[in-house]
Amino acid sequence: MSARPPGPELPEGYLLRRPTPEDAEAVAQLMIAVDIADTGQPDTSVQDVRDDWELPRFALGRDAWVVNAGPTPSRGPLVAYAWVWDRVPHVDLQGDLYVHPEHRGRGIEPVLLRLLEERTSEHVASAPSGETVRLGVFTLADTPLVQDLVDRGYEHVRTFLRMTIDLTQGYPSTPAIPGIEIRPFRRGVDEPILHRVIEESFADHYRFAAEPHEEWVARRTGHAEFDPTLWLVAWEGTESVAGVLTYQFEDLSWIRELGVRPAWRGKGIGKALLLETFREFARRGRNRVSLGVDAANASGATRLYESVGMREEQRHDLYQWTAGKARGDRG
Q1: Which of 261, 259, 291 is closest to 278 using CA atoms?
Q2: Is 45 in the same domain as 120?
Q3: pTM of the full predicted structure?
Q4: Does some domain include residue 165?
């Protein structure tokens, strides 16, 4: 188990508490302030916050914290927020923390990290026998949070890129692939088909975890911005071979998942789905399209995205902290 420094406490003038549903708007505004400070543009909505709070196994009164500030902190503005979720039950946890730019470096970050670590450690007793329980935290490269993470024993394990294309600069036309047909997603019909396609496509990816079908569907179709007319499935006869799941989040055109089953890779199907997605966004008047990709992706995804005109926009580093290993003698 990783050794940790003694638990830090918040400095005077700050109040730590659990969030309530009524805090969603203030949390979103805090996250937007962080977005603008770090990247120059907002990248969060209140619906994003509410969607996080509705994830399976997440409990607002157990897995999240906020910090208020001011002479009377209980009535002061919300200046920090942290939350954690076991994306793989009791084994692989994802944590996030946000500190308003005007309050960074005042000792809030170590407190929130300690809380994330303590909550992660509580999962060790429930983890499957012999499994190691880990907490992952993303941060933009070269931000002050990096030093806090390193100081607390986190290790940099992966880098993920946000890649973006400006469609007004042009992009290739969609190639025809003999025997392959790209069709619109059929709601109420294609959910299990697309679930199988995406999970098979991502099975060898870093941190992949299979999800029960109901959870998989709920997490992708439950968002207020879900639009089934943006999803596409590629077919070879009666066999579904690839798919793409895309969203329009206010001014962000986002490709959430693009997957091609291993037996059909190397035929240009992923490229065709990508270009059809560009064409549809352009038809709707959307000029910038983004996605996230593992920089070490072994399938060559980064090269594919570069080949159609996408370029790196942001670099996010994943740091990981190990809570411990579940006992192997439990029945």
Answers
A1: 291
A2: yes
A3: 0.90
A4: no
